[in-house]
Amino acid sequence: MVRRNGSLVFATLGLALTLAFAGCGGGDDPVTDVPGNDVTVPDVPEDPGLPEDPGVQDPGTPEATAPDATEDPGFGDLPEGDIGADAEVKEPEPDPALPMRAAGWMAGDMHLHTTYSDGDDPVAVVVALAEYLQSETFLAYHPEYVGNPLDFIAFTDHRTVDQNADPDFASDSVILVRGEEFGGPGHANIFDLSDQVSHDPDGDGATTADYQAGPGAAHAQGALFSINHPMLPGIPFPWDVRDHDAMEVINAGWGLHANAFDLESLALWENANGPASPIYRKALEYTGEGGNGGALRYYEAQLSRGVHVALIAGSDRHVVFPVGFPTTWVRAASRDVAGVMAAIRARHTFVSRTPVSATVEMSVKVDGQTYVMGDKIPLGAQESASAEITIRVRRAEGARIRLIRGVGVRTDEELAGIELGTVAFETFADRSDFQATTTLELSPGDWFYPVVHERLVAPDLDPALAAKIPAMADAMSRFSEENFAPLFEAIFEFVDASVAFDATACDPAAWIPQNLQCIPADDFGMGTFFVPDWINRVFSIVKEDGQTTDWAMGALGSACVVVGLPE
After folding, report:
1. 78 pLDDT exceeds 80?
2. CA 20 to 30 Å from 466, out of 157, 293, 330, 337?
3. Is the pLDDT confidence value at 89 over 60?
4. How many angstroms separate the CA atoms of 519 and 532, rounded?
């Protein structure tokens, strides 16, 4: 690996990470309208799907089955022994998640920036980075990505839609979604829009009314509105907005927002902006889970108040890191922009840390009817009903699988007195294609969603690399948006500094399996790096009670909500 001036590398990576995680940016307010694009996606193997009759098991003794199971494909596999450039790249086992694509599942990135706001790369480079995951060079080195492309990406530059009219806004293989990142003191993405939506249309400073008008302005264009990184300390989203369509629960990487907005900071925010959302305030009662963990708590609090939206994820890429990490999955009826949007509206989504990490599906049987992840489950006049819930997880042998459950309330005042999500069921995957079934007694207002925690250290990781993870995990617990030094120290030895300064210096022949690998599709400004799986797991580390754990966030699925008769 080539190294240059260490302090300069730290400064450069510091700038890159600040741009990536601070979400800062400007941009004018132009109005542009261009059509979306449709692409053709190759046929994929048929998915056997979840079983028709999984059976009912006691929550303490789940049934674990493995239809057409294969061995765990592994992620970022390395041979045992010393770390070196001559490390052999192992062929993965057959991927048990590939058949999901026949059922309509597509993978993408819903949060990207270009030079039209504060991104480092032009539209053409960002498109090329998404397409590169299916290039011959990349697949020869990373065969686990064969059949696992990025199907769609959304361009969400700050307060502009100009990027959507760029001459290079086109791709034969990736669906491109027109977008905008709305807002200034709090951010949201708008997807599939024509005209830019302003968070301060009167130019007199953003107000709660301005933010509450945002979803309606998006919907008037047929677009979707999604709240972004709501717990990021510098740009929180305490505005009382309840008619949005989605929530970004993983921004950049689960563990990369070490700190979250807190109640003390909220008091200062209210002094400047007026009353905050009581739903947001409820989420702030839960601390020590990081910024993305706080976003998930906000999602739970919304569910308890009857706000039922889709979970999505976005890289929030500005510079250095690749497109598609983390990953939003949608189960779409058509492989085009309309299909992606319809899937998000229907909440048929889950999120994962990479395009080839854990996947999760959930089916629910109630009164002879079958529902899937994200559905509303009607009980009619019944006060309660028994539900058979089957969770299927692929590519995550050894993972901890949880079903999180909560209750609904009728008023904001009632919300203050309840507990948010708790673990209703837990099991562990003993193979790479695993499913388990449990039963719950459900009442109107109840909600539940699946979580997959992968092992922080991959089972077959080179021991020399595994020995480095405790120090890296410690760094993840110490860094903040104001102090990236611990993170720099953790990854510095795995970065080719020459490419960090000059994207055109990237040479795939110099790739080293355990290192961040430059992506030659980026030939503009600073380099872009593929993050190997073993480091991505550290970037996805799960915090509980303020402490890092031995788990990485693998996947989260959109919640099902139980509904009764209208009041």
Report:
1. no
2. 293
3. no
4. 12
Q: What is the Cα–Cα distance from 528 to 550, expressed in whole angstroms?
A: 28
Domains by residue range for the chain, with CATH? 6-564 (3.20.20.140)
Nearest to 394 by CA among 344, 352, 425: 352
Selection from 296, 345, 319, 328 nearest residue 447 by Cα: 296
Rounded Cα–Cα distance for residues 199 and 470 (Å): 43
d(CA 318, CA 433): 35
The C-alpha atoms of residue 19 and residue 77 are separated, in whole angstroms, by 31
Give the residue-averaged pLDDT of 428-432. Answer: 97
How many other C-beta atoms lie within 10 A of the C-beta of residue 463?
Answer: 10
Task: Kindly list the distances between the CA atom of residue 262 and the CA atoms of 230, 235, 265, 420, 496, in Å, as whole numbers in the listed order.
Answer: 11, 12, 5, 17, 37
Q: How confident is the model at residue 25 (pLDDT cuts 50, 70, 90)?
A: very low
Average pLDDT value for residue range 139-146: 96
Residue of 483 and 295 predicted with greater confidence: 295
pLDDT digits (tens, 9 = 90+) for 206-245: 999 999 999 999 999 999 999 999 999 989 999 999 999 9
* Residues contacting residue 506 through CB under 8 Å, at least 6 positions apart: 499, 518, 519, 520, 522, 523, 527
Could you tell me which of 330, 391, 344, 384 has the C-alpha nearest to residue 364?
391
Which token pair is 301? 């609090």
Residue type, 98: L
User: How far is residue 132 from each of residues 137, 184, 320, 526, 531, measured CA to CA in Å?
Assistant: 9, 32, 15, 17, 14
Residue 282 tokens read as 């409820």
With a CB cutoff of 8 Å and minimum separation 6, the contacts of 11 are none
Kindly report, residue by residue over 463-517, the tens digit of the pLDDT: 999 999 999 988 877 777 677 787 777 788 999 888 988 999 999 999 999 999 9
Q: Are 289 and 543 in contact (CB under 8 A)?
A: yes
Joined together, the tokens standing for residue 390 give 């089957």
Helix and strand numbers (H, E) in the chain are 14, 23
* CA trace torsion 290, 296, 301, 305 (10° rounding): 160
CA angle 226, 546, 247 (to 5 degrees): 5
Tokens at 471, concatenated: 């120090």
Q: Give the angle subtended at the CA of 450 by the CAs of 445 and 456, to the nearest 5°.
A: 145
Question: What is the model's pLDDT at position 498?
Answer: 87
